[in-house]
Every structure is written in structure tokens, then in C-alpha cells.
Amino acid sequence: MFRNFVIVKATIMVKRCNCVKTSEITLIIFSKFCHYQHESAKRHKSFLTLIVMAEDLTINRSTSKQGQYESLIPQIEALLYGETDFVANMANVAAALKEQFNWFWVGFYLVKTNELVLGPFQGPVACTRIKKGKGVCGSSWAQAETLIVPDVDAFPGHIACASASRSEIVLPLIKDGIVIGVLDVDSEFLNHFDETDRTNLEQVISILLNQYVK
């Protein structure tokens, strides 16, 4: 009756899906839907793909920052799986991050000619264009590296798009060795971002870029 399926026992972190209702069940997994990589299989360098169609996010703020990322990232991967429209994927990534962490501002800027141009975002209105090397975003682009700024007022040449922003992390989107944009996250609190954010947001960007098609 069915082709290309596996039956597995799994614990599901997705709140709602087309085929499952409870957290630990036997799943019939089809390769057409989105996937979640089983950690025990990952440790053996073979990937067991669990197919789950996410219709909603499960938001967990009762755990550590790392725990929140570990809950959210598989859901982002499921959300983006199979979708090649880059704008749509950036929009969903920004929305998912905003919903989980409630940061002041989170969004993308894309490289167009010699400027960063505002892309999908969540938060107050923002600067539309940023020159290469200017501000935190422009500097991240120019240096092709992640920048963590504990106090934006102490950053030379900081562009104050919103006076309420106090700290910031900007991560470049690098595809085939070329920076094509940046992910910008702002907080209204000082010293809000750290290496945990860097590591996990870089993983989010990797998932996003895996779906990128020129």
C-alpha cells in the first residue's frame, strides 16, 4: 500500500502535525515531508530522518537558552524543508526566532550591489540601506564574520536605527564563499548575546542556506 516509508519510535517536539497527536508513538514516516534528525543516529554519523509536517511552533521558555535553541532548531528545519523561496524562508526564520526569544528586533539584510538592503524582519521599522563597512551590519558584511556587540553605543560608527536597541549580534550569510546578506538581532538589554547565540544562530543560517537557490 505504501512505498518509501519506515516505522520508528520517536519523541516529537512539534505541537501539531498532520499525522501525529501524541508525543511518543509509532510513526509511519514518508520522505515527502519535512524532517527531524534523530540524535542517537547522528552520534553514529548516520542520519535517521523523521518526517514531520509542522503547522505550529512549540515555544518552550522554561529551560536554558541552549535548551530553547535545541527545541526550536529542529522545528525551523522542518518549517523550511522543501521550500526554495528564500524570502519566504527568511520570513519564517525571523518569525520563529522572534516568537521563541522575544528579541527587540530580528531580521535580514541582503547584499544588493554595494549596499545591504532590508529584508524580512520582525520588530520596529528599521534602516532600509546600510553601506559596506558601516555600523555592525556593514562591518559583519565587510569582515565576513559574526560580530557580538555587548553595548552598541560603544561600537565605533554604530548606526542607531532604533534608540531602544542596546546590544546586538550580526551573522553573515555566506554562500559559496560570498556574503549574500546578514542576520541581525537586537536586544533592549546590554550584553544580551553570547557564544551560545553565535553557535546556534550559525546553525540556523546553515539550515536556511541549505534551501537557497539563486
Shape: globular
Strand order, sheet with most strands: 7-6-5-10-9-8
Strand content: 25-35%
Q: What is the CATH domain class of the largest domain?
A: Alpha Beta
Q: How many structural domains in the coordinates?
A: 2
CATH homologous superfamily heading of the largest domain:
GAF domain
Please describe the topology of this protein.
Blueprint: E1 5-11, E2 24-30, E3 35-37, H1 39-43, E4 49-51, H2 65-80, H3 86-101, E5 105-112, E6 115-122, E7 129-131, H4 135-143, E8 147-149, E9 167-175, E10 178-187, H5 195-210
Antiparallel strand pairs: 1-2, 3-4, 5-6, 5-10, 6-7, 8-9, 9-10
Helix pairs in contact: 2-3, 2-5
Protein model, in words:
- The protein is an alpha+beta fold.
- The chain folds into two domains: 5-56, no CATH class; 80-210, Beta-Lactamase (2-Layer Sandwich).
- The protein has helices at 39-43, 65-80, 86-101, 135-143, 195-210; strands at residues 5-11, 24-30, 35-37, 49-51, 105-112, 115-122, 129-131, 147-149, 167-175, 178-187.
- The strands form three sheets. The chain has a six-stranded antiparallel sheet, sandwiched between helices. Strands 1-2 form a two-stranded antiparallel ribbon.
- Helix 2 runs antiparallel to helix 3 (86-101).
- It is globular.
- The termini are far apart.
- Mean pLDDT is 80; it is low at 1-54.
